[in-house]
Amino acid sequence: MTEALFLKPVFQEKIWGGNKLHTVFGFDLPSDRIGENWVISAHPHGASTIENGKFKGERLDDLWKNHPELFGSNCESVFPLLTKILDAKDDLSIQVHPNDAYAKEHEGELGKTECWYIIDAEIGAEIIYNHYARTKQELMEMIRTDNWSELLRRVPVKKGDFFYVPSGTIHAIGKGTLVLETQQSSDTTYRVYDYDRTDGNGRKRQLHKKQSVDVTTVPGLTPKLEIKTDNYGDSSIVTYLSNRFFNVYEWNIKGALKMVKKDAPFVLVTVVEGSGELVIEETVYPLQMGTSCILPVGIEDWLVKGNLKIIASEPGYH
User: Fold this and answer.
1) Do 256 and 305 meet the contact criterion of CB atoms below 8 Å apart?
2) Can you spell out the DSSP letters for 193-222?
3) Is 36 marked as binding a ligand?
4) Quick check: pTM over 0.85?
5) pLDDT above 50 for 318
6) In the chain, pLDDT over 70 holds for what percent of residues?
7) CA 311 to CA 251: how far, in whole Å?
8) Residue 50: how many CA atoms within 13 Å on its side-chain side?
């Protein structure tokens, strides 16, 4: 029987991080400034480790390379997706990510298109989402003169919101938000502005103004989402996105829901609320907040039981 692949996460300390990954999710953190939890990752800057079964102890990047049968016949050269949970105790830098072509030429990796599910948000929390510059020249001038109030578009956020952030979109997650991020497997970030703050050694973080102007989409585009909800008794499946990068879903389980894999060879799963069980044939796996796993090739259907909310994703190349 094919097993679900449960994963040990990788924690990333950040200048803007906090400790909600412990207080909310119960993770044992190495410090109280953990900004990112890479819960499903095969990226060389932080690869997850398999925690169960036949492949226990193996890194996901090695599994992708050595056991392609688990992931389907259309495997790309690198594992295509990366799932994170972010705790923004403070504001993230104003930033932008390149597309595949620019990232391949300048960074040697994938571009970074991403999306955010807001797990929780404090009252008054907001994000930076896009900009108001009409031309590249205007964008450069606003950045040069630190005219952030006129350049940046601020958007209030609340628990349950969803945002699609294509490459080329100027953005920043604001303080007081807890976010599940689904993205291409890339760690390339170009900082436009970082509030002149310094790290523990009194140094400012590097900015990438030229690269930022190079890759920013001007004028800014706000994609229109076609969110669809399918109800199954008291449970539901919300489809947030379906494109060439990824398909992203929210599974709301109240009781039990039998699910069947569709076209994608494998599915990424992270519990963001509640608890329950994942049942595959005769095997029962406990699920709690923060649990992440991959349902590889060979698992065609499964049952989810309990009272919980899951963000699931699939590669979009099928």
Assistant:
1) yes
2) E-TT-B-TTSPBPPP-HHHHHHH--SS---
3) no
4) yes
5) no
6) 98
7) 6
8) 19
Q: Which residue is associated with the tokens 């060389």?
A: 44
Give how far Cα 186 sits from Cα of 1, 47, 79, 109, 305, Å.
32, 12, 10, 7, 33
Contacts for 281 with CB less than 8 Å, ≥ 6 apart: 1
pLDDT tens digit sequence for 105-119: 999 999 999 999 999
Pairing mode of beta strands 152-156, 126-131: antiparallel
End-to-end CA distance of the chain: give it in Å, rounded.
Answer: 24
Count of beta carbons in the 10 Å neighbourhood of residue 95: 21
208 is in an annotated binding site: no
Number of compact structural domains in the chain: 2
Six token digits for residue 231: 């109800």
Q: Which of 165, 190, 215 is the last residue of a domain?
A: 215
Cβ-count burial 38-58 (b if 16+ within 10 Å, e if not): bbbbbbeebbbbbeeeebeeb
Positive or negative, the CA dihedral 311, 314, 315, 318 is: negative
Per the structure, the complete domain to which residue 252 belongs is given by 228-315
Residue 284, strand partner residues: 279
pLDDT tens digits, residue range 42-59?
999 999 999 999 999 999
Q: Helix (H, G, I), strand (E, B), or coil: what is residue 291?
A: coil
Q: Are residues 71 and 34 in the same domain?
A: yes
153 token code pair: 């578009």
Looking at the fold, whether 263 and 180 belong to one and the same domain comes out as no
Residue that is last in its domain, among 170, 185, 215: 215
Mean pLDDT, range 279-285, rounded to an integer: 96
Q: How far apart are CA 227 and CA 224, in angstroms?
A: 9
Catalytic annotation, residues: 191
Helices (H), 98-158: 100-106, 136-144, 148-151
Is 131 annotated to bind ligand? no
